[in-house]
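Trying the structure run again after the queue cleared.
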Amino acid sequence: MAVLRLLSAGAAQAVCEQVIAGLRRDGHEVEAAYGAVGAMKARMVGGEPTDVIILSAQLIQDLVSGGMVAVSSVTDIGKVGTGVAVRAGTPLPEVRTREALRGNILAASVIVCPDPATATAGKIVMKLMERLGVASQVEDRMQFFPNGNAAMNWLAASSGNFELGITQNTEILPIEGVTYVGALPDEFQMKTVYTAGLAARAAQPELAREFVRRLTAAEFRPSLRVAGYEIDN
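Done. Tokens:
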């Protein structure tokens, strides 16, 4: 049986799994891997068989320029902001202003986020710490994970006090056991557009096109919004 192979940013995991469930109900096989965008791009560049890849828009364009993704297939999914989470059942810190966010970051016992070496959200978090002037003060309390999903699952299973998670909204909202506190203040937002593309040498191009069609279809937009995507129309 033909197998669709997907590499995806962790920010798209929840919505991709919904589409995959539908494809499987229709009798199709799908193999999917999720992680930081840099790691997913490296796997494709390294030769891993891929039919569909979902990354930040810039990294997809890099793959188009390298001849690895078909330019005609490139389709935006939506824009994603960055937010703060705590373990479910714990007090919700104030994060709506620079002063409140700074104070609660400094008060946190642990701050979890994706690894800035490979993940978009991790880079955003580190820039946030620098702009708040707290990077050196919280350095020893930061814990990095391969992606936001892994960070949020750690937070959900933790038992400490005053632990914070910071990652993209789509990696917080679907995770049971964590509570979405709110978005970073506008001055710190660096919203990321996530984009799907078909591998130029996809082994299953028709099934890959069907996957992207379902993911970006008008009838699926409510699911994207619930998952944390901002969509223009």
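The first strand starts at residue 3 and ends at 9. Worth checking whether this holds up in the mutant runs.
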